[in-house]
Amino acid sequence: MKKLLLGVVLLIALVFAMPLVLSDFGINLATEIYIMAIFAMSLGLIMGYAGMVSLGHAGFFGIGAYTVAVIGQHVANTYLLLLLSVVISGLIALVTGAVFIRTSKFYFLMITLAFGQLLYVLFWQLKPWTGGADGMSVSAILNFGFGEIVSPNGFYYVMGIAFIIFYILLRLFVESPAGKITKGIMENEARMSALGYNVRVYKLLAYTLSGALAGLAGALYAYFNVFVSPDLSGWMFSGQVMVMVIIGGVGTLLGPALGASVFIYLQNFMSTYTERWPMVMGALLVALVLAGKGGLIHWLQHGKSLFVARKRTGEAVSQQPVKKGEAVH
Amino acid sequence: MSLLRVENISKSFKTLQVLRDVSLEVNPGERHVIIGPNGAGKTTLFHCITNILPIDSGAVYLDGKEISKLPAHHLAHLGMSRTFQKNNLFGDLTVEENIHLALAAKKPYRYDIFSPLISRTDIRKETNDILEQWEISNRRHVKVKHLSYGEQRLLEVLLAMASNPKILLLDEPTSGMSPAETAQTSEMIQKLPRSVALVVVEHDMDVVFAIADRITVLHHGEVILSGSPDEVRNNEVVKEIYFGGGAKKHA
Lengths: 329, 251
Known about the structure:
The structure holds two protein chains of two kinds. Chain A is an all-alpha fold.
């Protein structure tokens, strides 16, 4: 818990310090990064804590985005729209997940891919409501009751705070009994079943939470981007968010967020030099996967543990060995 | 009344019949050992009793209630627990966290998604009790994959015991162990409280005769004898199977 508190304080400091050094373009980029970080964390949750690799996660992102775009034409309340996005994408995750979790590994990958593409085609075909391939602009305006939020800085803080809130909620989940049990199921399903756990309930729970959160990220994105298109549900985008998770580090929460930052930054940075930026991204991904399993976050942790270990051994000469509580994590 | 009753169960994998009309009874607190040469169907029998594999015919009763159609995770709640032949632990978790997972299965808060598991005082206390009872408190923060093989097998039994089962199925608890570890494990099994009945698959005859109240001999998927250790020791057919080279088919 102390660790969580420290992490949150650091994140808050980061969110509030960044505008001091960033240009307008940088603020915009950081805002997008926060949204993508929420999305990447949602996928990271099922990939790293439940062992489910989905190639259709953008489907939920699209559902959330279109909820704000379509229903937002008639409903102005931001809270209601965000709630609707979460509930609709969560419900769809619950219903489809009940079928999907019966498959595993490659079959899960394929069936989620099909799910994402189905939504992609649906948004494309429902032209009267969604504008079809042309997409549609979002008329709903972000307003939490303190006035309309339209400035880049306003968006920046909203998304930054949303990122922190959902990081905390996810952290609580992975430390909770249900979260620990889900992780146990990922490591050893037969054993957890023999211990008396209904493994499907936990898998479905994780999938539903993940889908709901991806929907929320999509809803936030719709407000931010004021334009949605079927591509938000396409397999390319599902693949990109998976790359974010892998670059950052599977099995952690901040890893995918870090991966999202690197991905979005490089995407914007490199695309000013060359149209072929995905090649550079691909090379980076290959290098990362070959050089170190576990992604960027594990390198950071490794560096930290080296530093801490050196400090510890230095202290150990004069002090008692490691105290009881310290060896836990 | 018997605690566990296995009635005429059969199991085939495609054309290979692994179990043929196997029946078995285990009384409360009994130490029931199942022996038989490799391929006799012992582990399959365990998988069928614990519903990891569906049976083709027959039935399994626990406390008079038919359990052969229930999903595997229900059995733990009815008081049946098991270990696996291969180590089947959570390698990246510590000893303590493994025990947490075993204990939480019966807690009402097992579906809680907000408050940290380690903030629960009851689970911390029960974990401490188990660690002290088995004298492994000093290993609590060690990741399971760093434990010795013998320690891992011990933890395996301990996790299965965490739910306070009425009946515990141990699948080859001493397989792959050194003679010293085997002796230790045998001693540990003998120390388990009589409130739990044991069904044990075992190859090591010293262990078998040290713990068994009753022995069932399985051969080619059939029960050829079920009786006291003395009956089994002096049975001609059993001697034939174990020592006679197996050229002659059993009667």
